[in-house]
Amino acid sequence: MSENTTSSSQPLGGLRVQFSISDSPDLAALGLAQEHVASTLREIARSVLLRGGAVGYAGDLRRSGFTEVLADLVARYREQTPQDKDAALTWFAMEGVNRGSEEDYRRFLSRWRGMVKCDPVESEATDKAERLTALRDHVAAWSNALVALGGQPQTSGKVPGVAEEIRTQIRKGHRVLLIPSFGGAVYDSAAALGVSLPTHFAVEDSRDLTDMFADVRLQAEDMVLANALAGESRLGVIVSTVTAALARVSG
User: Fold this and answer.
1) How confident is the model over 100-105, as a mean pLDDT?
2) CATH number of the domain to which 133 belongs
3) Does residue 76 belong to any structural domain of this protein?
4) pLDDT greater than 90 at residue 23
């Protein structure tokens, strides 16, 4: 549905949901596959669209990546729900960060014309890390809720992108819905935020994000949700739990 329309049939009308996701290296240790993560992303995004919310993402243009997963989901949703002519993925793109080459950028927008609304983001910063932070700040200003799952963990002292998006949204005072059960940076962020997590696999000390999250905390309801989903991998349970929480945000 259009994000500008609100009614009793659109419980998420006016809600703008940022998805924060990237590949998790922990899936095999958890007995899961990449398709588990992709399916969860698709079903939550579909639920948001069906209930009148808007979907946003700032991923890159790698082949079969999560940006394509969301664009394809919107296309399928539009086929199944032709009355919802305004449904689209809002994709946040910054040159030199996640746009890829000019050819890739134009090809992507041409392929998904009408399904993807590109929101170009600019920054005067020249350092890539600073430009990434500017991009994430822009997306946080657009959204009023975050759903996070998976994510590359901390490597070589670099701040994980998913973790930075989580911290940015917490600082904005927005609702932050963590799904720690797929491991990765969301699991590490949840641990640093005090979520009670199952120890299905060993996590290296280098992934400790305690210092990164020392000055922020989850809202009480978001802590309850993160604890409930900490060891949950059943698709239906995750989707229904997150959808219900988003409905409370919108309400």
Assistant:
1) 95
2) 3.40.50.450
3) yes
4) yes
State both tokens at 196: 């009670």
Residue type, 169: Q
120's tokens? 């170009």
Q: CA angle at residue 156 from 155 to 157, to 5 degrees?
A: 90
**Structure token pair of residue 176:** 């932050």
pLDDT category, 9, cuts 50, 70, 90?
confident
Nearest to 138 by CA among 93, 103, 96: 93
Cα 88 to Cα 78, 141, 197, 236, 247: the distances in Å are 9, 18, 35, 24, 20
Categorize the per-residue pLDDT at 5 as very low, low, confident or very high, splitting at 50, 70 and 90. Answer: very low
Indicate the pTM of the whole model. Answer: 0.94
Please list, in sequence order, all residues whose beta carbon lies within 8 angstroms of the beta carbon of residue 225, skipping any fewer than 6 positions away.
177, 178, 241, 242, 245
Which residue carries 């746009």 as its tokens? 99
Count structural domains, the chain. 1
